[in-house]
Write a structure and sequence with these properties.
heterodimer, A: about 250 residues, alpha/beta, 2 domains, six-stranded mixed sheet, four-stranded antiparallel sheet, 10 helices, about 40% helix, globular, B: about 500 residues, MetI-like fold, D-Maltodextrin-Binding Protein, domain 2, five-stranded mixed sheet, three-stranded antiparallel sheet, 22 helices
Chain lengths: ~250, ~500
């Protein structure tokens, strides 16, 4: 579905991505994970054309991402970022429908689509007239997800979508996202630094360090057959002290 | 967006109304100009009444700043007649040609399409004056005597400070050593002299204040100042009969008469038009009342000044909005170009307003047009800068979200970026509007009218009530503008941006 070949990217002297190939398979969730500065967000930005590769090519559904093709391709992609990136001067509804209105979609169709998306994301339909600043953090991310899904894109790109939420809402949204991804059967690329989230949502996990892929596989592969001591270290560092406490209290 | 269009349309309609009104105001009349001191205004009034008497429709564009403004306006055809002095022609206007004598002047002027009448009868030369008691106690009688008193504080009219025959030349002729020399308004200088803040000022020898304040006129013992015989200057292409009508007062106003006329206006507070009419009545033995232009009453005068002032501010501001917002947008998109634009409009802002007004005259003549052009240039910077910074300060995630959605750049600009920058842009426009309301008062110096007119006249006549008649409405208008922008803020800035987050 998405293919990166020989892609590299540097910002000045800082190397963000070393030359790499990455194929994202369709209809499943691929998680890009790694510590800060490992290049995971940059990879996502390369996919949606917010960054241009220094070398190599990015293609989506067989079409290469270029200056000319990027705008059309973006309409087949949904993009959600950490703080939602909602337009503060527009209501939730106007945020979600902006592109559809620009493309002159039928208002009746838009209304139905909105109801459908509200059900899917568990967002109260009567809150659609609110402005982003009148919504909670979790609600904002739901609206952002609706905006990404409005035109039923083939691919969803999510850059730490739950990173700014408090733990309870985060957990709730994680399981909701899992249901949504399963039911929609979309190609999803999710960036996170949270191993639990990756394990819960990812069919396929790509672990990055310093702009290079360290290991790729299912969570079981990373746990059971680490390709590098870094893999174990990264997973181990994410273990919560609470896990150890819980284990000690086991009979 | 709709609301913005409605507000814009309303403003355009007002602007058109104002433009039509302004065009009616000066239709097919002869315009007489005068400088912004009392004697010139009286002479301008005399010329106006003479021409009207001869059946030539005439308006008096009074108090148009200084020599350079009047001369440019005459050359440009904005005015057809104004009173001038031979000394000013020799030393200032035609200084480079080194012309001396009446006939030589007339010939040089004729080559430029300008006619000069015979002298009106008085010599209003520059003179140097002090308080009589101070002069006596220091033993100063002549200008040469000043050389031995370097501690004296000089206060000269701004025009005198940089004229060809003014302070620098005077200091050279006499070898004057004084360092404490400041420029100030001629009419305010008398006040300074009386209070003792300054010791020595420049005078016009026909000033009524010389006697009123009991001043000593220092003898020009090295004959530095040339003769300043008052004459009419007129365009040779002026309608037939103009030169003939003006000739009626050639040789008819001697120095004593002129001092008396000045005194009636400045000390007795009689209107210039009345003083001029009385003078002409004495001269020709004619009934005066039909000459007098009815002075409009206070309210209609205030209304027409408000109209003029609003016109200056609104037209210049709207033009600036139309130009500056696109400039700001392009500057935000193309940083190199943006630096250039911000630099240029920044430099424009540093040009002193009076200088900018005068620069405009050769192209745009006098009146509202050059004033609007100058105000337009001043309005650019705040709007360009705030448009630029409003767009520049949009958070990157929001800018990128719009891009990542696949919105065309036109839609991104109009639906996302400009609405988000609207508050900043509006506050730039507000800054420009408030600055414009103040700066527009200077427009009166080049015949643009507005609230500056009573301020200018009030300073000239030392009449505080008249000054307030311009200053108070101008201040109220500025406050009103502030309020109007608060209201516009609610109308134009999207509601989503006005919400304060709860935590």
């Amino acid at each position: 579905m998405l293919e990166l070949s020989g892609v590299s990217k540097a910002f000045g002297r800082l190397v963000a991505i070393r030359p790499l190939d990455l194929l994202i398979p369709p209809e499943q969730t691929t998680v890009l994970i790694g510590p800060s500065g490992s290049g995971k967000s940059t990879l996502l930005r390369l996919m949606i054309g917010l960054a241009t590769p220094d070398t190599g090519t990015v293609s989506i559904g067989g079409t290469r991402v270029t200056r000319e093709t990027v705008r059309e391709l973006r309409r087949k992609l949904g993009y959600v970022i950490q703080e939602g990136g909602l337009f503060p001067h527009l209501t939730a509804r106007a945020n979600v429908t902006l592109l559809a209105r620009t493309l002159g979609r039928d208002p009746g169709w838009m209304g139905e689509r909105l109801s459908e998306l509200c059900r899917l994301t568990h967002f109260p339909e009567d809150a659609m007239h609110r402005f982003p600043l009148e919504l909670s953090g979790g609600q904002r991310q739901r609206v952002s997800l609706m905006r990404a899904l409005m035109l039923d894109p083939d691919v969803l790109l999510l850059d730490e979508p739950l990173g700014a939420l408090d733990p309870m809402i985060r957990a709730e949204l994680q399981s909701e996202l899992r249901e949504i991804f399963r039911s929609l059967k979309k190609t999803v690329v999710l960036v996170t630094h949270d191993m639990g989230e990756a394990a819960l949502l990812g069919d396929d996990i790509v672990l990055l360090r310093d702009g290079a892929i360290v290991q790729r596989g299912r969570i079981e592969d990373l746990l059971g057959r680490p390709a590098d001591p870094f893999v174990t270290a990264f997973i181990g560092a994410q273990r919560s002290p609470l896990d150890d406490l819980a284990r000690r209290n086991e009979p | 967006m709709m609301r913005v269009v409605v507000v814009g349309a309303a403003l355009v309609v007002m602007m058109l109304g104002w433009g039509v009104g302004a065009a009616w105001a000066s239709d097919g009349e002869i315009a007489v100009g005068s400088k912004k001191f009392t004697e010139s205004v009286i002479l301008g009034e005399i010329a106006t009444q003479l021409l009207k008497d001869a059946g030539i429709p005439t308006e008096h564009r009074r108090e148009l700043g200084g020599t350079r403004i009047l001369w440019s306006a005459l050359l440009g055809g904005d005015i057809q007649v104004y009173p001038e002095y031979t000394g000013t022609l020799e030393q200032e206007i035609l200084a480079e040609e080194n012309v001396r004598g009446e006939d030589a002047l007339r010939a040089v002027l004729r080559a430029r399409g300008i006619g000069m009448s015979r002298p009106l009868g008085f010599n209003n030369t520059y003179a140097i004056g002090m308080r009589k008691d101070r002069a006596q106690s220091l033993g100063v009688r002549t200008i040469s005597d000043l050389v031995t008193h370097p501690e004296l504080k000089f206060g000269f009219g701004n025009e005198f400070l940089d004229r060809g025959d003014g302070w620098p030349a005077l200091a050279r002729t006499y070898g004057l050593p004084q360092r404490d020399v400041r420029g100030l308004d001629h009419d305010l200088a008398y006040r300074g002299l009386e209070s003792g803040a300054i010791d020595v000022i420049d005078l016009y020898s026909t000033d009524a204040e010389i006697r009123h304040y009991d001043l000593a006129v220092l003898v020009d013992d090295k004959q530095h100042f040339p003769r300043y015989d008052a004459v009419w200057l007129y365009r040779l292409d002026a309608p037939a009969g103009v030169a003939e009508a003006l000739a009626a007062v050639e040789g008819a106003i001697d120095e004593e008469t002129m001092v008396a006329l000045n005194g009636r206006v400045k000390l007795d507070r009689v209107a210039e038009s009345r003083v001029a009419a009385d003078f002409l009545a004495d001269l020709e033995g004619m009934v005066t009342s039909d000459r007098l232009v009815d002075a409009p009453d206070g309210w209609s005068r205030l209304a027409s000044r408000t109209w003029e002032h609003l016109g200056l501010v609104l037209v210049s501001l709207l033009a600036a909005i139309v130009v500056a917002i696109p400039l700001g947008v392009v500057s935000a998109v193309k940083p190199r170009f943006g630096q250039l634009v911000l630099g240029v409009v920044g430099v424009l802002q540093t040009i002193p307003s009076l200088a900018l007004l005068v620069f405009m005259i050769p192209w745009l003549g006098i009146g509202a047009k050059p004033a609007i052009a100058a105000l337009f240039l001043y309005s650019l910077l705040p709007i360009v800068r705030n448009t630029y910074s409003g767009l520049h300060d949009i958070p990157t995630p929001i800018r990128e979200s719009a891009e990542a959605l696949g919105l065309p750049s036109r839609v991104r600009l109009f639906k996302v970026e400009l609405p988000m920058a609207s508050r900043s842009i509006l506050s730039g426009i507000k800054t420009s509007a408030v600055i414009n309301i103040g700066t527009a008062t200077l427009g009166a110096l080049i015949g643009a009218g507005g609230y500056g007119q009573p301020i200018l006249t009030g300073i000239r006549l030392d009449d505080m009530a008249l000054i307030l008649e311009g200053a108070v409405p101008a201040a109220l208008l500025a406050l009103l503008a502030q309020g109007a922008f608060e209201w516009l803020d609610r109308l134009v800035v999207p509601r989503g941006l006005r919400i304060r987050p709860e935590n």
